[in-house]
What we know:
Elements: H1 8-11, E1 21-30, E2 33-43, E3 48-52, H2 59-67, E4 74-79, E5 82-83, E6 94-98, H3 109-119, H4 124-137, H5 153-165, E7 171-175, H6 183-200, E8 203-208, H7 211-217, E9 220-225, E10 228-233, H8 235-240, H9 245-250, E11 255-257, E12 274-278, E13 284-287, E14 299-312, E15 315-322, E16 325-332, E17 345-351, E18 356-359
Parallel strand pairs: 3-8, 3-9, 6-7, 7-8
Antiparallel strand pairs: 1-2, 1-4, 4-5, 9-10, 11-12, 12-18, 13-17, 14-15, 14-17, 15-16
The chain binds adenosine-5'-diphosphate (ADP) and magnesium ion (MG).
Magnesium ion is lined by residues 59-60.
Amino acid sequence: MGTRLKVNERDGCNTSIPAQIEFCKVTKRYGEVAAVKDLSLIVPRGEFLTILGPSGSGKTTALMLLAGFVAPSEGDIFIAGRSVVSVPSYRRDQGIVFQSYALFPHLTVRDNLQFPLEMRGMKAAERVKLVDRMLERVHLNDLGGRMPSQLSGGQQQRVALARALIANPPLLLLDEPLGALDRNLREQMQGELRALHREFGTTTICVTHDQEEALTLSDRIIVMRAGKIEQTDTPAGLYDRPQTRFVATFLGEANILENASFSLESEAPPLSGTVAMLRPERICVFDAADPDRAVDDQRQCVTGSVEDMVYAGPFRRYHVRVGNDLIVAREQAASGQQIFQAGDRVRLNWLRSDIRFVRM
Ligand code: ADP
Ligand code: MG
């Protein structure tokens, strides 16, 4: 743990206890459309929770409800045990970063950061100290005097995060906060966000449609679909044990083996209404002419021919025709490894226990 910026003790702001959040059967309707349906959820203090889902699934609405920008049509929302549905947004102690949440364009970086402290009535000398520390914390020491328009996208995003965190709010709300950044910068900022969360311990709710971002950042993820929670779990739980076809295919790649043309072996018998799922990286690819390797009674082995090989840097993706099925296998690049091309005959094998059944 690093040092927490303790705004509150000296300056009489609200005590900053990380908040616990509870959604209790919350529905939000826009006319005929229910953007969020009967949402119940508890977020323990200090958790980094990500709301993940495709566009239009209700993620932003859920966050707006929490921020107090929209009111629920039904249900109640509690922060630290208190119903907040009648508390206006500006009275809620929260830091907010939206993708398009612009910095004040007419204020320098330094003044942008001072703003939330000034709003809380902090004295000038204290403000300067906190701003200095925060600028250092987000590696922007030399840029305090610049205007937002003189910063790169990544720098602006760092200022926005710093501004959201500087008053050490009990709750941090992020809506696609890194959406505008290119890949390298996004990864760098993900690391920064993780470090800030470790340091400040702020209860954080982050909305994204980016599965990789969700997996990297979160203690827990909720997957939303059409206004409802499809599944909630840790990143590893969600990836390794998806319960539905929607989650399996939305989060990572999945072979859905529906009516497989070969007899599929699994550890557990399939339940009705489920379909078999196998992650591409769980499949090993061998030359069909080679003697069987790595096959024991825990693995199933099938033979097929490569229809396509897609080079993706650290791994290759093989599309392999096995009877009527097209199976995608993903092989990590390793030195000395045999590489297959379209037309090659290959043997695929995987652990029976890697076959999972997901609901349709
Ligand atoms: P997401 O953030 O997951 O993309 P949103 O929460 O923005 O989804 O939207 C969920 C659904 O609610 C969508 O169908 C959207 O069109 C609808 N919606 C959102 N905001 C409004 C609004 N202000 N008026 C009418 N419909 C809205
Ligand atoms: Mg949105």
